[in-house]
Amino acid sequence: MGKFYTYFCTVFVAIGSYLFGYDSGCIQTLLAQPKFVIYFHDLQGALLGAVISSYAGGAAVGCIIAGWGADWLGRRRTIHVGSLVALIGTAIQTGSVTVGMFICGRIIAGIAIGMLYSAIPTYMSELAPPSTRGWIVGFHAISLSIGYFVSSAVGAGTYWIKHSDAQWRVPLALQMPPAVILIVGLFWLPFSPRWLLEQGRDAEAYDTVKKLHYDGVDEHFFRAEFHQMKEQIAYEKANCITDWKTFVTVPHIRKRLVVALFIQCGVQLTGVNCINYYQTAIYKSLGQSSYNQILITLGYGIWGAWSTGVCAFYIDRWGRVKTIMASSAGLTVVFTCITILFAKGVNPPYDNPGAKKAVVAFIFIFCGVYATGFNGTWPAYSTEVFSQAMRARGTSIGAFASFVVQLVLIQITPVAFQNIGYRFYILFAVFNAAMCVIAWLWMPETKGLTLEEINALFGEVVVVSMQDELSLSDPASNENAEKTGGEMEKGVSGEADKGQLTLHENIGSR
């Protein structure tokens, strides 16, 4: 099966990512739907912030649940549970009759999305070969962007339902069919092979790696890859303390966590969700009609999905760090220009129509620069920096922190716009400039390395080198590798290799 099976699993599980993107786009088009505005009495200020940020609050809780569940239940089952919870939350939002009920549905849906947001990139990264891991995990962001675009298109269509609450209930309800498809289809997807090895299910893990990475040509590669996984996980189980406190007490694990926190929180500090969630309010302040607000948002969604695809496709060539640096620098310029346009062309006494159009143009430039640099990068980087023993929990902590920052920013954004106006954009210009410098000084490049070899970048032991495995020319060694593979295919765990570990502590510096 090989690549086709890997891509199929990636695309299917990314339905969960689509749900996140759809809801992100759905809420901001709802805010421009006249029937929604009338039904909930024109939400403003702190209450508007609560409606939007309640989702992020629930997601933060969901991330922590996923950190525990992905290790105990497995990555696939955690995604399964998250899909079920998403279905419940969506149903409550669709049937809401009060603001409180709507917020309750948002919180439940947020818990689900937090679980999916944390578990899906982890699952994808553990299915992917090293050469295309950025592209495969980047599909999480592509699917998210597609969901954002589709929700904008649906909002544009239902806008014309003028005399019914279906104008805003239908877009919410359309989240349910993909959730049902994901719930049913997950039964046929494989478990993560690395998680299977952690559970001692070696033969099943071997079969899974073979299905994912063997195209009928180079059998040596997937056997070498499996051997590296197996021995690294055995070493970590024997030598590593894996409780939650080690994220603080063990220096090299703490460094991994700080790097993950930087990228996860840094994504929020780019200003992306303040633009995404409140762009209809921005367009309204620029004099755009309700329908034009939705149409502009639709165009934004199309452009974002395309730009994300570019990032995911090229990230394995460009590298993670250079891409983040270039995007951060570009976003610094974008927010500086937006600030100047508001100060000298939009705000009284100027009210310049050309400046208003330029602001919309720069929001689209923001979308392209952000999506091309960050959207395909953060899901890959924030999962691959952790060792197998700590990946699920480390990713969940990073995602939790991301949603906490998002919650705070979303809650304060409408208040900030009311009180300091365009000056709020200066904050994001400063943050992006700082991120560019920090990424240059401190982020190690992970492009092209296996998940096991990334350990060396943080000063940890890599038990088996893929380079050494693939360059073996000793016939006896090759015969032993074939024997190991044959034993695994018969369901034998290959315990004959146990204890024969080769230490390579400096792979990352080659």
TrEMBL record:
Its main location: membrane. One of its GO terms (cellular component) is membrane. Residues 9-447 form the Major facilitator superfamily (MFS) profile domain. Residues 480-498 have a biased composition (Basic and acidic residues). The keyword Transmembrane applies. Residues 473-510 are annotated as: Disordered. One of its GO terms (molecular function) is carbohydrate:proton symporter activity. It comes from the Eukaryota. NCBIfam families: SP. This is Major facilitator superfamily (MFS) profile domain-containing protein. It comes from Vermiconidia calcicola.
